[in-house]
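Q: For a teaching session next week I want to show students how multiple molecules come together into a single three-dimensional assembly. I've collected the sequence lines for a complex. Could you give me the predicted structure tokens for the whole thing so I can convert them for display?
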Amino acid sequence: MTIPPQNKDRIFAKTKLPGDFVFDENVASVFEDMINRSVPGYSTIIAMIGVLAEKYCQEQSRIYDLGCSLGGATLAAVDRVECQDFSTIAIDNSAAMIDRLQIKLRNLPRFASKIECRCEDLCGSEIANASVVILNFTLQFIPLAERVPLLRKIYAGMKPGGVLIISEKIIFPDEKLNQLFIEMYHSFKENRGYSKLEISQKRTALEKVLLPETLDLHRDRLQKIGFQSVDVWFQCFNFASMVAFK
Ligand code: GEK
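A: Of course. Below is the structure for the complete assembly, covering every listed component.
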């Protein structure tokens, strides 16, 4: 089956009726362009997830990519891992994303044998025997009250020595810095070809759906759950990626 094309993201280019952002077929069909033009450092983060997976994947264990979308992080991890005996579980609750990832994998047999795709809500997923868990810009979409139970479940399902990689849009307790980074982020998007209308309509659509938190909150919560050596390894404006170990 041929891989459905990836198009340029023009979802918010024309005036739209208000409505919350959803990961539907329209978004899945432009997702690669959208995320590359919307997340500063996305390609670096994906490449470094591969490097971290190579270092921390253990024999006879699993890699989980939670909120995998089109599998950018999944494929980067599987590409680098040198273990002989491991499996990868890629989870997303968007059928449009998982369908496209499955079609992509049919054309990539070396990866397909290592990756199981699941279309399900990751809050209900079983996590077991994990040496690498990836939450690459996914936790921000999980309702606030479900974040602690989800992270506890991840911790319980990890092997000692395993790594959790969490990338998120973040906010800052200092209002001046918060404003500065939002402005710099909006200039980044304009430089990547998004109009002011696109930026503002997407911001409104994400308002109730993407709920960012501070780095302090992320660190404290992970440490309280039991994770060790929790800190940021990448940050650009209001986007950061953290590691946390069991
Ligand atoms: C990447 N990690 O390219 N259960 C499962 N999936 C979910 C849930 C949920 N409850 N909520 C949201 N998602 C990817 C990018 S995108 C980030 C991740 C972004 C999924 C949702 O369907 C979407 O595919 C993904 O999380 C978030 O490395 O678009 O900013």
